[in-house]
Amino acid sequence: MFAPINYNFSNKKALVVGASKTGLDRAEKLSEYGCDVTILSEEFPENLNLELFKTKHKIFNYNDMIGFDLVVAATNNTPLNMSIVKIGKDMGLITNSVNYDEEENFQFPASFQIDNLFVSVSTSGKLPFLAKKIKDEIKQKFGPEFRSYLRLLTEARELLNLNKSLTPEERLEEFKRLQDFSVKELREYNDSIISKNKQVVRIGTRRSNLALRQTNKIIEKLAKEYPEKIFIAKPIRTTGDRRIKRTIQSLGGKASFIKEFNNALTNGEIDFAIHSAKDIDLNQLEDTKILDIFPEREDSVDVLITKTPIEDIEGINNEMVIGTGSIRRKTFLANLNDNFKAKNIRGNVETRIKKLLNENFDGIILAKAGLNRLEIDNKKLADNNLYVNELEFTPAPLQGVLAFQTVKDNDEIKDLLKVTKDQKTTKEANLELKIQETFNIDCTVPFGALVNNEDNKITVKITTFPEGKQKDFIKSYLSENEFLNELEELKIDLGDNLG
Questions:
Q1: What is the mean pLDDT of the chain?
Q2: Among 6, 183, 382, 458, which is least packed, fewest CB within 10 Å?
Q3: Domain hosting residue 85, numbered range
């Protein structure tokens, strides 16, 4: 019987002590797992691509471990590494050493990721290659269902913790028994507990680090308001996420990100879903709906990240290859400066930044909201010789906004989520949804819209591209009704031959 150790590394703070090659490899792996990684070392190799790591140039002190969730001892000093592991464990940290110290919690050769779970097989530091062999056997044993198995087993553990009638020893024995269950048996076991326990709330989310961070932020807020409930994030892989080599437009646009959530909601697998609102196709919701509840908006601007500094974007006179898959951004670029050559790029935020660093791109365009939520600031990018310029592009409707999707008439979930509602964002989002609906546009059409609701007025900016040429509309209104009464006329004026 195999007993995998499950640990969610997403958003955890990791300290790597030492900039040895092995240490840097492990720092990169932890970053892929969703950790916020800091590398501490007296010296760093020259011309080192530090990716998106934080760095501390200093002599190590044991107090440097305070505030971290896990530590990797990666110096060239074996006794120091052993000491770091021992003291780190005493401080309650998850530990690892490049020396395979038997005191450590996990070994990297036997570690891998399943969705947002990090899986490690341990042989107490004595036989790391045997641990790797066991890991491979585990994956082979469960085959293509292994992802589901690990996710369901972790969910079962969380559900067991709800059962206060069991002693810790009884919960452990029950968890050991569950490890022999099949995927089907585990799913039935969990569903039977959830169906009887109204305190469990299952939240659907996409699998990227950004999506999981967004979801975890909402969970943190809900958990503070409802400490009696258990909130479980359930990652869902969409068609758009699976078919990464094709453009979004060729997959049917935003619809490629919503179908699987519709099914999970209507089948009762999740209670609600969290989305980046701009990615939702409102025409594909079927028996579900978007709630009139929107949390506080993040920054809505687009940013251009380049390998070389740019002082005057419009004045660039040499060709630059810019990565973006967005029709809107490509059209804005063409109108801004014809020396920009747009090239399709897919993948999550971290993947696109790595492609910029390692492939034939001079720059990429990203939403600042995603960078902010991932805590990738200008300093982190500058540490990798990357430069940031905010673009004066009108964003896509609802850019920077999160949205909640539920089945229709689910008043219980609606009441639960009211604590997350931001009044300003909700008014802006509803008006941008109305604009999107009136103009009947999707991601296959270059179109931008932004509503700003403050100082007792509503300022609306809409950008279209009739015959490929940029056309901007900006106006302030004293009320929603004043704007809505004019919206149909705006469609006639701006909506012919959108681009």
A1: 84
A2: 382
A3: 5-140
